[in-house]
Amino acid sequence: MIRILLAEDQALVLGALTALLSLEDDLEVVGGAPDGEAAWERALALKPDVLVTDIEMPRVSGLDLAARVARELPGTRVVIVTTFGRGGYLRRALDVGARGYLLKDAPASELADAIRRVHAGGRAIDPQLAAEAWGDSDPLTDRERQVLRAAEGGASTAAIAATLGLSEGTVRNYLSEAIGKLGAETRVEAARTAREKGWL
Fold it and tell me: Which positions carry 4-aspartylphosphate (predicted)?
């Protein structure tokens, strides 16, 4: 049996995934979690064969969760199942160690097959997304991404500096670099462009 942990913040989707995967003879859903932090705690306790996670989740994102699992639970493979069909998200997911990346509108049989393939040591990635992922490369550094993410929510330079433990001048420099790299006029436009590309 392939033991699966599901991380999904929408209860209805979590229930549906559990029900669908439980119909497969060789798959067993051993647990579910409504956010990334709870998923990490359950992964440590259960040590599943495969963790299926969304990207956008409360407390800890699916990408951060995938990175932790790759570092500290190498026996657990990660499959991302999300609504974000953007190449930038796929690249970041693969960079942090995810072995599969599927969209939520894929048929249930594709998810089951992806779990089997990833468990066997392979990869399971939507081919259209894979082609798109290597079109535009993400020009942002991790720190520029953090600063833009905070700016996207309308935070002031002072608030961003306080949150990230940086000086206001340093925050302005990061914002200026990100705006320049993205060919934007303002921090809001830069954040929107980065979000659309899947880089935030």
Answer: 54
Rounded to whole angstroms, how far apart are CA atoms 195 and 187? 12
| Long-range contacts formed by 109-113: CB under 8 A, 24+ apart | 111/17, 111/20, 111/21, 111/52, 111/79, 111/81, 112/20, 112/21, 112/24, 112/27
pTM score of the predicted model? 0.66
The pLDDT of residue 185 is 83
Residues 119 and 189 both lie in one domain: no
What is the maximum span of the chain, computed from C-alpha positions, in angstroms? 58
Strands (E), the chain: 2-7, 27-33, 50-53, 77-82, 100-103, 124-125
| The pLDDT of residue 181 | 83
Of 83, 106, 133, the position where a domain reaches its end is 133
CATH number for the domain including 88? 3.40.50.2300
pLDDT digits (tens, 9 = 90+) for 61-105: 888 999 999 999 999 999 998 877 766 778 788 888 899 998 887
